[in-house]
Every structure is written in structure tokens, then in C-alpha cells.
Amino acid sequence: MASRSTGCLLCVKRRVKCDERRPGCAKCEKYGTSCPGYTRQFKFVSGKPYRSRRCPRIDEAVCGKEDPESIHTPMPSSGAGALISNMQPLTLASPHLNVLQSLSVLVDDLSQPSSTNSTHIVSRWLGFLPAAYGRNKTLDATIHCFTAHHLSKLTDNEQIARYSRSAYVQSLGRLRASLNSREESLSSDSFCAVLLLCIYELFANNNEADIWMKHAKAVSQLAEMRGPSCYEDPFNNTLLKAARGLIIMHSLFSGEKCFLASERWHAVMKQRINSFDTEELEILLEDFIALFTGAPSLVHALYEIKGADPTSPMTWRKMSETLTRFLEMQTKLQAWYEQYSRVAPHPHDRLSSTNDTRYPVVLHYTDVNIASLFCSSYAYMAIIHEAFRTLGYPGNHEAMIVFFRDQICKSVEYLSAGLLGPYRMGFSLLVAFEVADPATRLWIKDRLMDMSQRYAAMRPQTFEPILDSASSPTSP
């Protein structure tokens, strides 16, 4: 019999030599995810001819009731292709039998394109899920839902897709019960489940444009109810940082105040969890987030002025106050950008790999997190110059808007790569769409159509202008 590797599950899957450090190996830590450990289980399937069997009830899957003829096992080969090729019909009907392997593939795929310098915060959060699986039935149900959706996309398998939708209904029921429970309502597992369902909606919902906003509202409310003191350990702090983009976007679109825009919450979020390999970049990331939490209130103020009586003295006073706030934010953002551009490697020009006619030269970055911060700052500056133009502040704001818009569009080829690409690109591309001329909007819509194949929230028909919709809960 061939010898079996004694390395951890992830190193075996990746086919790399494991250092076998306990309790978790250093290779996984360097890879940017939590080590799944060394425990191996085995699954024996009877050799009788396969016959169609009853699909297990979702509650059986969630509760972890096993088929008496089988014991769970990792798949012997690595990667999504190997996992899929080894899945038997019974496993397809019962995705819970291989949920840990499926989850490992999902985390790996969402981490692409991989980087030696940093890990996207959502990938880092998802890296905690294999260790969390099995300790809470509500969270397990949402994990089943999300991983099954991912597998259905990989395999183009309608049976798994149906299971994913059924698991979604089941997870909603369990989540309602958990949120009504005094013991579970504010737990990290409940918060994790709410966030995971919101992410699921962004990836999967092709019918209801604003359903993710309802989940994002729940994420925002639960995060605030739990209070800053709940986010001091690495898991909960990562959870908050994975959720804050949705919290800010919900505030932006709903017209509600962003509770993260306070010094108390800024202090909590500045706890370092190694998103970058240098402390200086980590600090600059958090400094930008602190500035970004102020964006919703600025956009709300601008929207109010757009709908106000331009001849009213009260409107003039609001315009003056709002202009002062935007000027102050511009000063802060420019100071931040000067620091950031001295530390972060700048993008360089490269010919488009798709021979794009509108943007034949695109921007190439060294790292997706660095690229995300550059693009977010471009979007923020575009909003500020749009505000200056609207408020009548002197300057060549039209040219600045076009510059920042084009910087975002030229970053699409690099930053939209991978399953999380559309998630990273969403806000920036939304702003570019808002300020674009008709020809550029058509170009953006073509990119959105491509991205919506793996990320439903990017459908062109749901892409609403940010400054025209900031008072109503409309999805990007």
C-alpha cells in the first residue's frame, strides 16, 4: 500500500510539504489561512451498483446525521477539479458528506489570485470557517448553503444548486430562531451566519435586486448591538473587518448613519490582524477606512442639497457647510494618499490581455489589497470632485473626474480577477459608472455582464447611480 502523507489536510490538498507544526502548521499560516489540522477520517462506500436514493432532508444534513453505510473522508486528490471528479452520485445528493472538503476548495478559490504579501480580509475570515464548522447548527446550515452554491457553479450541476436553495431556506429558519434566542442572538456564530448569508445573496440572487440590502441591514444592526468590546479577539475582529464594507455600503444606500464613523469603533478596527506583511501598510489601510466611514454622511448631505430649493437661504447655508466638509475631507484624503503612495508600489502600465479597444493600456498592480485601496481612493476622490462641481466650487473638476474614472476602469482587468474580484471592484466601479459618459457606461456594462456570471450583484440592470439613489435602499 502506498504511504499516506502525515501533513495537515490543506498541505496534502495543495501537494506541498508540511512542516507538521502543532497545533497548526506554519505553511498554512504563510499561505494566509488557518490550518485545518491533521485529523483524518475515512469513507467506505459499498460496492453494490448505484441506484437512485432519496435525497436527505435538509434538517438531517444540517444536524449532521450520517448515512449508516458511510463515514466521512477527505478526497484523495487536491483542488476543485479533483474534488469534483471524485464526487459520487450519493455525495451530490448529500453535499454535507463532503462539506469540509468543499469548504476548503471554496476558501482556496476565493483566495485567488493569491499573493505572498497580503490576504483579502474576506478570504481571511472564510479561512476560519473550517475550524468553526460543526460547533453551531445555524452556522453549519449557512456554510452548507454557500459551499453548495459554489460547487453548483463549478460543476454546472442543477441538483447541487437545488440543494443550495433548499439549504438557504433552512438556514434562514435556523437563523431566525438563533436571533430570537437570548443565548445565541449576539454570538459570533450568529453574526458569522448573518454575514455569510449576505455574501451568498451577492453571489447567488439573480431575481431580487435589493435582497442583499436587507441582509446588510441585519449585519449592520447586529454588529452595532454586539458592541465594540466583542471584537477584541482575532476571529471576531476579522469578522467585523469582513463585514464593514457591507455596513458602510448599507449606510450609503439606505440614508442611515454609519455607526462605524466614530473614534471608538475606529480604535477597535485598528487592531492589527496582518492583512498586509508590513505594519505601515496595515495602519494606512485602517486610516483610509476611518476616512471612508465618513463617506455616507457626505453623500447624504449632497443628496439633500440636490433635492432642496436652490433659492432658499437655508439651502445656501447647507451648501456652504457641506462644501466645507468636502474640502476638509479632500485635505485629509490627499494627505493620506501622499503617505500611501510613498509606501505602496504604484501600478504600472501594461497592454490589455484582452486587446481592449477603449482601454488598450491597463494598470497592473503588485497585490490585490494594494490595488483595492488605490481604486477606493480614486472613487472617493471622484465623489469629492463631483460634489465640488455640483456645489459650484471653482476648479477643473470635470477633468479630475475623468482621470479618476479612467484609473478605475483601467484597473478592472487586474482587480476583477478571481471569485472575489467583483466584490473588491464593486464600489469603485459603481462610482465610475455614475460619473461616466455614455460610451464609457456601455463599456462598464459589458464588464458587469461578464462579472455577473459569478457575482449576481454585478448585473447591469441593478447598477444604480450612487449619488442619485443614496436615500433609498438600492443595491449596487
From TrEMBL:
Q: Which PROSITE patterns match?
A: ZN2_CY6_FUNGAL_2
Taken from the record, one Pfam family name reads Fungal_trans_2
Superkingdom of origin organism:
Eukaryota
Q: Name one GO molecular function term.
A: DNA binding
Ranges for domain Zn(2)-C6 fungal-type come to 7-35
| Annotated InterPro entries | Fun_TF, Osmoadaptation_assoc, Zn2-C6_fun-type_DNA-bd_sf, Zn2Cys6_DnaBD
**What keywords sit in the KW lines?**
DNA-binding, Nucleus, Transcription, Transcription regulation
Query: Known Gene3D superfamilies for this protein?
Result: Zn(2)-C6 fungal-type DNA-binding domain
> What PANTHER family does the database record attribute to this sequence?
TRANSCRIPTION FACTOR DOMAIN-CONTAINING PROTEIN, ZN(2)-C6 FUNGAL-TYPE DOMAIN-CONTAINING PROTEIN-RELATED
Protein name, as recorded: C6 zinc finger domain protein
What organism does the record attribute this protein to?
Answer: Aspergillus clavatus (strain ATCC 1007 / CBS 513.65 / DSM 816 / NCTC 3887 / NRRL 1 / QM 1276 / 107)
